[in-house]
């Protein structure tokens, strides 16, 4: 297999000033939409990923053929304080309305910085394209959430095109106080047609229904399909979830570590129309499946660190007499 092409040559053309030094030769910093800075990771063949410093947010992940795998709204606003609509916003220190902060917390609309000297992480030596970002609270942040923290995010592109995000959150309070937070990788997948999509791995799970005042229910029946608005927090969800796109014959496998829950969201037509930064018909081509810690907040004492990981892969769907064999995807 051919290795990724170093990004050095492309960088001179893409930006006028010399590229900022990044530890991986397969990562470069360039200007993105509205002049906001983004990092481009280049993997083998045409695989690549883009991460904005604004929000520490992945906005693009492309496979070998250069096809986009994440949804990014055509109406996304790349201007603070609005979070970018699509990709993988990071919800921290609060998911949704589970607390007194703004919806989904503030990490998604802060500027992160490149962390050139992160504490070591166990790494797969085959991973060449990666970047480390860091978010620390500003004086203003401390007024709304009075806790000192270091949030380190590593985004990497594996040799087979897998995208992984590893979050490390450390309590750096010096006043002896613990803190608690909820969290989600608010992943927007690009799908061909939401009516042709199934999610496997969540059947029979308990969930909180955000459309019914967070009341608890148990999922019935088979795989999850979509014919109206869905906004559910599946509790104690398995570590692998599959999103099967029949039309594209593609299956996304979502692998999560340290994140017990999984949120599934599609706004459907009415809510789509009500969102300023989302096209009226775009609900048909997206689905959010969001590894999360919602029901039980995570608590860290000073000096303690939490790690939560998300790995995404996209594989061709396997059919067997017209039926998908989910066991191949989820256990294979
Ligand atoms: O519009 P946003 O603040 O980005 O939130 C978008 C959606 O995120 C999550 O999936 C929540 O469960 C939904 O209730 C919310 O509508």
Automatic annotation (TrEMBL):
Coiled-coil annotated residue ranges, if any: none
EC code(s) of this entry: 5.1.3.15
Gene3D superfamilies: 2.70.98.10
CDD domains per record: D-hex-6-P-epi_like
One GO MF term: glucose-6-phosphate 1-epimerase activity
Listed SUPFAM superfamilies: Galactose mutarotase-like
Keywords carried by this UniProt record: Isomerase
Record has Isomerase as a keyword: yes
A cellular-component GO term for this protein: cytoplasm
InterPro entries: Aldose_1/G6P_1-epimerase (IPR008183), G6P_1-epimerase (IPR025532), Gal_mutarotase_sf_dom (IPR011013), GH-type_carb-bd (IPR014718)
GO biological process: carbohydrate metabolic process
Enzyme kind, highest EC tier: isomerase
Binding annotation for substrate: 85, 103, 108
Keyword check for Cell inner membrane: no
Reactions mediated catalytically: alpha-D-glucose 6-phosphate = beta-D-glucose 6-phosphate
Family according to the record: Belongs to the glucose-6-phosphate 1-epimerase family.
PANTHER family: APOSPORY-ASSOCIATED PROTEIN C-RELATED (PTHR11122), GLUCOSE-6-PHOSPHATE 1-EPIMERASE (PTHR11122:SF35)
Protein name (record): glucose-6-phosphate 1-epimerase
